[in-house]
Amino acid sequence: MNTLTVRRLLVDLDTPLPRRWCGGDAFRTALFNALSMSFPAGEQLFIDSVKKGMSELTPEQQALFAVEVQGFIGQEATHRRIHERFNQHLLNQGLKNRYEERILSRRPMLESINTRNWLAVTAATEHFTAIFAEHLLAHPEQLAGAEPRLRDMWLWHSAEETEHRSTAFDLYLALGGNRAWRCRIFKAVAWNFAFDTGRQTLLNLWHDGGWWRPSTWASGWRMLFGRQGLVRLGYAPLKRYLREDFHPSQGDGALSERWLAEHAALAPPVRSAA
Length: 274
Hints:
Elements: E1 5-7, H1 26-55, H2 59-92, H3 98-112, H4 115-138, H5 148-163, H6 167-174, H7 179-208, H8 214-225, H9 230-239, H10 254-262, E2 269-272
Antiparallel strand pairs: 1-2
Helix pairs in contact: 1-2, 1-3, 1-4, 1-6, 1-7, 4-5, 4-6, 4-7, 4-9, 5-10
């Protein structure tokens, strides 16, 4: 099992954000803001699913996962708090967080299904965030012109998402999860993730007032479908989740390790799960 380090991010999240903090780019700012709007409620669902999964393991299995799960919960709780602070600035700018409402509306359903399938939802969503994280670490130009403190926040979050990408997946397997349900749930999560992220991005652009400018959509095309675009480069690794032999650890964590090592002073350990 993995040992995951809980870190404290030393960035200024008190100073108000510029409206288009990502290099003055309306689309990139709107998309990053949309993703951030999902994190506090989403991260809490991840934490709760993992806690519930742990409670249903045998004592021997719990002993195997205890250290990793402690680190997972610590990292996700830190992400939740950081993005709550970031999102407060978005609220102050007048943005409406419909994404969070959608996530919270699904909570009763997730709590009513069996724990194994709730973990499958978490594992599938964590795969999306891991693909996005690896892409951002490999292509930091997606944050070109961003305020340094906010660029650091996103890259720190990306590095830690890559670190703990296997936790929920391994718990799902430990509870007897199979490929058929894993893939079925992944497809449902993919639809909801794409719809909710796209809808919130459009709402953010509407509020920004830049939704009608051709330059906004040109930027969106480059970010998503250009030569180094997220969808263009991320589709193949995303689809690997459906393979019978898939495991999240097959991803390359070298960029995450390097970023965390190079920015140890920016994100020092609070505690280690060990």
